[in-house]
C-alpha cells in the first residue's frame, strides 16, 4: 500500500492534493475523518501526514525526507508525540479515550504539536464517542486528530460535523492487477483477486492460500454441474461443496466466485473478453456463453446476490445452497 507520497498519488490523487494544499497553506484542520473501504490506504496516509508534520527536513516543505530521526521513529511506531488508538477487543472504550486525553493534556515531549489516530473509529462505545466529542469541541493548540472508518454511517453525526471528511475511493482493478503482478502473482490469478478485495495484503494471502485455490476449482465445477440436472447438482453439493465451504465466511467467498463466473459469461457475450477474470477457463467459458442468453445470466446473478443476503441473515447454509441450485436451474435445461 502507499508508503510514499508518490504511491499515494497513484491510488488517491484527490486526497493527496487536499492534504498537500492544506499543509502548504498552513490550513490543516484539527480533525480529519478518513473514510473508505479496507485497503484503500487510510492508515498509510495517516502515517504520511504525521511524517510531513514532524519531519525535520521536509522536501518542498511537505514531503517527508524519510531519513531524519522523526521519520524513522514514526515508521517504527515509537514517536512520543504520536498516539494510535485501536479497538480493545471488539470496541474502543471510554477509558482508552480518557487515557488519550490525559496524555494530550501534557506538554509535547519534543515539540509543541501532537497527533493522534483512532483506527476503526466507528467501533467506539457510546461513552467513548461522547468523551471524544468533548475533546474535538475544545482541541488543544497544535493538536491534530485523524479518525479512520470503513463504516462512516455508524459514526455519530456530532462527531462527523467536527471533522473534515476525506473519502478514499476503492482501488481500480487495473491498479490492483498491476501491483499484484509486480509482487509476483501470476497474471492469470491477479484479475480474480482484484475483484474480491481492495487490500493488497489480503489479496496476497488469498493467492498463497491452498483453500482458495481449491475453492476456485470447486466453483467452476459447480457451474458445469448446474448445466446438467438438479440431482447431479445436489449430489455435488454434498460430496464436494459442503466439505470445502464450511462456515459462513467461506460460503460467502464461494458465492462471490460463482458470481464472477456469471459476470465473465456476460462480458464474453458483450465482446469484452478483456474484462473477464477466470482467465484460465477462458475457452470453456466462451463455449458456455454461446449456450445461454444475457437476460438469463442477469437473472441468475440476481439470484446469487439474493442468496448472499440470505446468508448474512443467517439462513441455514445447506438449505440456502440447495435452494440456490434449484433456482439457478429453473426455466432452462441449459444454464
Q: Could you list some keywords that capture this structure?
A:
alpha/beta, 335 residues
Per-chain topology:
Layout: H1 5-11, H2 13-24, E1 31-36, H3 42-54, H4 69-75, E2 82-85, H5 94-104, E3 114-118, H6 126-137, E4 143-149, H7 157-160, E5 164-168, H8 173-182, H9 190-196, H10 200-207, H11 210-226, H12 230-244, H13 248-269, H14 282-289, H15 294-312, H16 317-329
Parallel strand pairs: 1-4, 1-5, 2-3, 3-4
Structural description of this entry:
The structure is a single chain. The protein is an alpha/beta fold and 335 residues long. The protein is built from 16 helices and 5 strands. The protein has helices at 5-11, 13-24, 42-54, 69-75, 94-104, 126-137, 157-160, 173-182, 190-196, 200-207, 210-226, 230-244, 248-269, 282-289, 294-312, 317-329; strands at residues 31-36, 82-85, 114-118, 143-149, 164-168. A 5-stranded parallel beta sheet has the order 2-3-4-1-5, sandwiched between helices. Helix 5 (94-104) links the parallel strand 2 (82-85) and strand 3 (114-118). Helix 9 crosses helix 10. The longest helix is centred in the last third of the chain and has 22 residues, at 248-269. The chain is elongated and about 75 Å long. It starts with a helix and ends in a 6-residue tail after the last helix. It catalyses: DNA(n) + a 2'-deoxyribonucleoside 5'-triphosphate = DNA(n+1) + diphosphate. This is DNA polymerase III subunit delta'. GO terms for molecular function: DNA-directed DNA polymerase activity. Keywords: DNA replication, DNA-directed DNA polymerase, Nucleotidyltransferase, Transferase.
Amino acid at each position: 500500500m502507499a508508503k510514499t507520497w508518490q504511491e499515494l498519488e497513484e491510488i488517491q490523487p484527490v486526497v493527496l492534493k487536499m492534504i498537500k494544499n492544506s499543509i502548504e497553506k498552513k490550513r490543516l484542520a484539527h480533525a480529519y475523518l478518513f473514510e473508505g473501504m479496507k485497503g484503500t490506504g487510510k492508515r498509510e496516509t495517516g502515517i504520511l501526514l504525521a511524517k510531513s508534520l514532524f519531519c525535520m527536513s521536509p522536501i518542498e516543505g511537505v514531503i517527508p525526507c524519510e531519513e531524519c530521526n522523526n521519520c524513522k521513529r514514526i515508521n517504527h511506531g515509537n514517536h512520543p508525540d504520536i498516539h494510535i488508538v485501536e479497538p480493545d477487543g471488539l470496541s474502543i472504550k471510554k477509558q482508552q479515550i480518557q487515557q488519550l486525553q490525559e496524555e494530550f493534556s501534557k506538554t509535547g515531549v519534543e515539540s509543541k504539536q501532537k497527533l493522534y489516530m483512532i483506527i476503526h473509529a466507528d467501533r467506539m462505545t457510546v461513552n467513548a464517542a461522547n468523551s471524544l466529542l468533548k475533546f474535538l469541541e475544545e482541541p488543544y493548540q497544535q493538536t491534530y486528530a485523524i479518525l479512520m472508518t470503513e463504516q462512516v454511517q455508524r459514526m455519530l453525526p456530532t462527531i462527523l460535523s467536527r471533522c473534515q471528511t476525506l473519502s478514499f475511493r476503492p482501488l481500480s482493478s487495473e491498479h490492483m492487477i498491476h501491483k499484484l503482478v509486480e509482487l509476483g502473482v501470476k497474471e492469470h490469478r491477479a484479475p480474480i483477486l482484484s475483484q474480491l478485495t481492495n487490500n493488497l495484503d489480503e489479496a496476497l494471502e488469498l493467492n498463497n492460500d491452498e483453500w482458495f485455490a481449491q475453492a476456485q476449482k470447486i466453483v467452476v465445477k459447480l457451474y458445469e454441474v448446474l448445466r446438467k440436472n438438479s440431482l447431479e447438482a445436489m449430489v455435488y453439493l454434498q460430496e464436494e461443496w459442503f466439505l470445502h465451504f464450511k462456515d459462513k465466511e467461506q460460503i460467502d467467498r464461494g458465492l462471490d466466485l460463482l458470481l464472477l463466473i456469471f459476470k465473465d459469461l456476460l462480458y464474453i457475450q458483450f465482446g469484452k473478453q478483456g474484462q473477464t477474470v477466470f482467465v484460465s477457463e477462458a475457452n470453456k467459458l466462451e463455449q458456455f456463453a454461446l449456450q445461454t442468453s444475457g437476460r438469463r445470466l442477469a437473472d441468475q446473478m440476481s439470484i446469487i446476490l439474493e442468496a448472499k443476503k440470505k446468508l448474512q441473515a443467517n439462513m441455514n447454509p445447506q438449505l440456502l445452497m440447495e435452494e440456490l441450485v434449484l433456482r439457478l436451474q429453473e426455466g432452462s435445461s441449459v444454464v
